[in-house]
Write a structure and sequence with these properties.
The protein has 368 residues and is α+β, with helices and mostly antiparallel strands. The protein has 12 helices and 15 strands.
Length: 368
Amino acid sequence: MIEIIPVSDKNLFKEFLAFPFKLYARYPLWVTPLLKDIRAQFSPRNPFFKHGEVASFIAKSDGDTVGRITAIYNSAHINFWEEQAGFFGFFECIDNLAVASALIEEAKQWLRKKGMVLLRGPMNFSTNEECGLLIDGYDSPPMIMMPYNPSYYHRLFEGCGLRKAKDLFAYTIDVPETLPEKILRVGKIAQRHNIKVRHIDIKSFRQEVNVFKNIYNSAWQRNWGFVPMTEEEIEYVSRKLKPIIIPELALIAECKGEPVGFVLVLPDFNYVLKKVGGRLFPFGIFKALWYSGKTKDLRIMLLGIKEGYRKQGIDALFTIEGFKAIKRMGYKRVEFSWVLEDNTPVQRLIEVIGGKLYKTYRIYETEI
């Protein structure tokens, strides 16, 4: 017997949070999330809930928790794309198709009552956060804000009737001694177009966040799966990331003083999370401070250029300026993720630098 139980109180939410720790006990590459961050994400104080609703469920069998899922209604997506699509996320499950099917069906039913005709995921809660199912590249740990899951999940999803909607690529790049001549040559083209690149001023962080706001919803709006972020959401995310942002690796491109592009490269904080086991307090904070300077890996998390300023060498100029800082700080490896499977211009740039595709994530969908 499989029982699906709505997460309706604190005790059930604790079970919801605890289940992955049990499931991944034999997966050494899984990175323990910070529990306080997960709690904050589900808190009403998260500005997502001004335009979104979620319903979480756990699956039980013989008294044991054997799976979990969250159904997500996001009016920002519905209004932007004019598409009656709902989402699911925070999916975890034992290797049992009946359990997976019961969870997916529960999410469908909840979203069907809200008028949705399509189920898509996994997303936690949207493409602005952690999303995608790892389907290739299980032999290395995930970097910051990238998922990891057992290899049998894709079999469960397909058994539930879910099909591919879009693949997301992650590339790995060993930091080279020098950049290819082609990158340097294209960077000079950008300079001839009066493009300049500067790093953010952390002392004027709020003003720099405003610059990012100006770029984000313009530069990314034509991307598949894009969901516009409200000012409150951008400020919420920026406050969360501020402690780990390295100013020299958060770059803004300007044309005659107007911000036209943005790139954010973050140190792989997952290295720290592995050491603190999901808790910063009471003693994990000291470990975090110690290990935060030990990681040699980075993730290029965001790169966006306003329409009208593309194909002018700005991406090459970002690469040149970022490379200088990365070399100076002694980082050894960079992940570029995620990249849409059909974003060939960015893929070509990564390949020119020496990047290799090493992980693939998949977004699935099905009719409700």
